[in-house]
Structures are given as C-alpha cells and as structure tokens.
Amino acid sequence: MKSRTIAILVLVVLLTACARPKPQAATAPAGVPSVPPAATSTAMPAVPTASPVAAIPTSTAAPATATSVPAAPAPTATAVPAVPTASPVVPAPTSTTMPAAAPGASPPRPIVFPAGATNMTIQDKLAPGDTHHYVLRILAGQTLVVELPGLLGWAALAVRGADGTVLLSDRVGAVSWSGEVPRTQDYLVDVKSLTAAPTSYMLDVTIPPIYMPQATVVQFPPGGTSATVQGTLVPGAVDHYVLRVLAGQTLVLASAPGLQGMLALTVAGADGFVLLPESAAQASWRGQVPTTQDYYVDVRSIAGATFGYALQISVPALATPQPQPRRISFPAGGTSATVSGTLAPFSTDSYVLTVLAGQTLNVDVPGLQGKVLLVIWGADGSVLLTDHAIASSFSGVVPSTQDYFIDVRTSTTPVAYTMHVSVPPLSAPEPLPERITFQAGAISATVRGTLAANASARYILKAQAGQTLNAEASTTLGQVILIIWGADGTVLLTDHAGSHSFGGPLPITQDYYIAVRAVGAGPARYSLLVTIPPR
Prior knowledge:
With 535 residues, this protein is mainly beta. The chain has one helix at residues 2-19; strands at residues 109-110, 119-126, 131-138, 143-147, 155-161, 166-168, 176-180, 185-193, 199-206, 216-217, 226-233, 238-245, 250-255, 263-269, 274-276, 284-288, 293-301, 307-314, 326-327, 336-343, 348-355, 360-364, 372-378, 383-385, 393-397, 402-410, 415-422, 434-435, 444-451, 456-463, 468-477, 479-486, 491-493, 501-505, 510-519, 524-531. It folds into 4 domains: 105-206, Sandwich (Jelly Rolls); 216-314, Sandwich (Jelly Rolls); 326-422, Jelly Rolls (Sandwich); 434-531, Jelly Rolls (Sandwich), CATH 2.60.120.380. The strands form 8 sheets. It has a 5-stranded mixed sheet, with no helix packed on it.
C-alpha cells in the first residue's frame, strides 16, 4: 500500500511538469509591441535627401501604437536623418510672388529718364485708398533712390523686383528709400494712399550711374569682321575691351594656344547681363548676343607669373541682312507724319528720320499700350528709349544732329497700328558760332557780348589732343553759364553743372564749341576769357 502511494505521487509530479508553460524571453506587457531584433532604423525609413523637407509625409511615420514606451527605446537621433544644410527649409512666402494685375487695374506706368539724365520727378494725385504703380529697369549694383517729400503719414512707398524680391513693404509706411538693387531686372515702385482724402504727391526717382571700367575700344578694319588684341598681364591684372555687337550676331573670342589655365575671360553687356562669368575660367568662348549694345570683354590673369597674350575677337556677319528701315519724311512745311502697318507675332517694323540737335522728337502709337513697344536710338548708338521701358510713346530732346531709328515691336499677337511722329521746329535758329583765334605768340583771348534773357552766344576754336582748355566767364550784368562740347559730340561741360568756368584736358584734336547762356529773368553782359597753356 505504501509503495503504491509513492508511485501515485511520482506520477502527479511528472504530469504537473508537463502541463507548465515554457518561460518567454522579455515578454512585453499587454498592449505594448515588442522591439524587433533588427536595427532601430527599420522603425522609420530614411527620408531621401532629394525630397523637400518642408513636410515629411505621414506615411513614413511609425504606427500610432508605437507611441507607448517600448522595452528598449531607440535613440531619437536615429529616427530622422539630419537635413543637409544645402536644403534649408525656407518656404517662399506667397507675398513675394508677383501677383497678376487685378481685372480692370491699369498696368504699371514706365519711368523713362530723359537722355543723359539720372533723375525724374512725377506729379500726380491719389484717390483715397488708391495705389499708383510705376516700373523701371535697373542694372545690378545700381542704387535706387525714391522719395515722397512731405507725405509722411499720408502715403507709403513699396519697392519690389519683377522676380518678387521685396525691397520695401508698404506696411513700413516709409516715404523714402535708398538701396542697391541685387540684380538686373524691372523694379516696381508703388505709391499708396493712407488717408481718406485725395492726396497730391511728387515722386522723386534717382538712379546714380554705376562705374564702368575704362576699356579699349575694339575696331575692325573696313570690311573686316575680326581684330587681334595683345597685352602683357602680371598676376591678378586685368585688361578691359569693349565693342558694339548687334542682336543675333555671334561673338567669338579665341586666345593663343597654351593660355588655358593662365587667363580667364569675362563677357558682359552694358546692361549688366553676363554671358561668360570669370568663374568659368575659359580662355576662349563663342556665343550669340541677345541685344544690340556694347559688350565688355575682360582678360584676367589667373597665373602666378607675368605672361603675354594675344586674343582674336571676331563677329561674323549675320547670315541674313537686316531689313532696311522705312524713312519718315514730313510734307513741305510740315512738322509731323503718320505711318501705319500690321505686325505678325514677334516681328518688328523699322523707321528712320533725321532730327537736329536740340529738337524734340515725339512718337506715339495710341491705344496699344502693352501690345506694342517702341525702341528709339541714334545712328551713333545712343539709346533714347530702350525696350525694357515697354512704352508705346516717347517725347524727348535729341542730343545731336543725326538719323534716329524707331522700331515698333509686338509679342505674341498680330497687331495693326498707327504711329504719329512729330518734330516741332526749334524756337529760334541757332546763331553761327564765332571763331576764337589767338594773337601770334599768345595763349589766351577774350570775347565780350550782351545777351537777352535765356539767350545764348556760341564760340568755336581749334585745339590739340592733350592740351588744357581753360574757360571763364565773368559778368557786369546778370548771370551766365558755360556749355562746352567737341565737334564729335563729346560733352566736356553740361548745362546741368550750372558753371561759369571750366578747366580740363582735351581728348582729341578737333573743333570745340563754347556756348555762353544767360540765366535768370534778365539780360546779361559778359566777358569770356579762353586760355590754352603750352604743353
């Protein structure tokens, strides 16, 4: 009986051991997912660096249940890879995108400075809550100065680029601003009313000229299409060249063999547009220029020693000749003419007429603002109205007697146009200049005269390149100013200077003109002393 009892106890122990569950390794509490044995980077896929970091897609996040604390949490630094510094998360604010013009809103009015001027004043009147928009083209690096004198609290300025860059917000409430613009483009200037009453204003806009390097003019021989320039460069030195190239022509620069890695070429238009940056470090280049203008070619040394160079500059002739412009002629005794035409999309009609120095040229294509644009320039290359102005009318005094060209251009749609051109006669014929001559052995001469109010007397004398011309006017009645220029049109002293004296070297051998002009409300009695010291 005792042995039977022992056997039953042994059997119970064995059955109990078989029914007990096997122990689990690190069993997680209920509701908490266990940590997978793989690396923690599998919990969230890495964000591809090419994807914008502005918002990580929620599909890549860990499941919601993973927000509970796991048994072995992974370091948070491995959850999302670091964002490369080259991809900053700076979403562009919507206010910097140039909005389309509201339906019925007038387009910005172009600001066009008179030939040779750097300042313009616009007068207008704002209705309550109204905003006037203006636009003008500015080169990278130029300084823009805008001012609404005496209107603090009555009006506000806003300045922004065509690319959306805001230079001055109207929320500032400022009535003046000055700053250097970052890039070559159109800039918009807004004048906004801040009052419940009509407001008259004067908007002063100034763009001082930027420095352009003194450059050697590249001239091709008659009938030629290329020229070779030569020079010697010390380390870090640069030589500047400039030449005129027509839109669509190809500019070719070819340096002598073996100069790659020793010099770097730069090509830029007078409007600031860079065709070949210095960072390209190219010793030769070929490219088509976009607009008719002067182009600057810089040759810079990137070598550690002095070396000589030769650079061939070529501008092959255009494959097809430019169309001959249509000459505008006024009827006998007339001062105006009207021409008409039809333009296909992206086409141009060209006209030409002769205008005398000091005359006012008026050109207008009515009713087509924004559909056609005018471009006006002189035969000497001086631009009176650029295509950047996007203007369909122009009025200005021409600087010299020559042919002036007028282009009428369209963009995406065909246009039938009528253009009015007028050149009012000069108020009075220019008097023939009196020639100044020195006595034998003398270095100076004096001339005298009397002028009516706002009248002028003109003198002319021959001088040699490198000589110094000194001119001084004194008066016993009224006031006078001097204006001095060369027969080639080079201005030595402008009337804007308001000066009665001048002294300076002469650039070339030619005739030079001196005008004595009465200023003020009354006549003037003057004495003009002209001196040219011996060299």
